[in-house]
Structure formats: structure tokens, C-alpha cells
Write a structure and sequence with these properties.
single chain, 77 residues, mainly alpha
């Protein structure tokens, strides 16, 4: 599969749950990119709307759980 983005070490937060969610988002973005590259524009649009947008909402709702604990910022490298 062609990939538009790779989740590299420097992009990880060190928070396992957040890193797993970031992996999922990267995978979804790459799926949309691959579908689009194959000319499957309708499938790509549907994956974008149903997959990525809803997952982004989920991700940021979960992130709010961490903010009161002072874990909202990525760790310094």
C-alpha cells in the first residue's frame, strides 16, 4: 500500500493509548490516500467521512480525559 504518512518515533507521545490512537488515524489517512490513488474516489470520500472524521472526534474526546491530569502536551524529546 502507498502511504502518505508514516508514524515515526519522533511523532509518538509516550502515552500508549494516545500513540495507539495516532496509529489508527495514520492508518485511516493512508487508506483514504490509497483508495484515492486507485481512483476509488467515492470509497475514499466515505472512508474520510465515516472513518477519519468520527475517529478524530473520538480521539479528542479521549484527549480531554488526559488534560486535567496535565498530560495534554506531547513529551519533550
Amino acid at each position: 500500500m502507498r502511504r502518505i504518512i508514516e508514524l515515526t518515533q519522533d511523532l509518538l507521545t509516550g502515552i500508549p493509548e494516545m500513540d495507539e490512537q495516532h496509529r489508527k488515524l495514520v492508518d485511516l489517512l493512508n487508506e483514504v490516500y490509497e483508495l484515492s490513488a486507485q481512483g476509488k474516489r467515492e470509497e475514499a470520500r466515505e472512508k474520510l467521512i465515516s472513518g477519519i472524521i468520527s475517529y478524530v472526534h473520538f480521539h479528542f474526546d479521549r484527549r480531554r480525559v488526559y488534560e486535567p491530569r496535565g498530560i495534554s502536551r506531547m513529551r519533550a524529546s
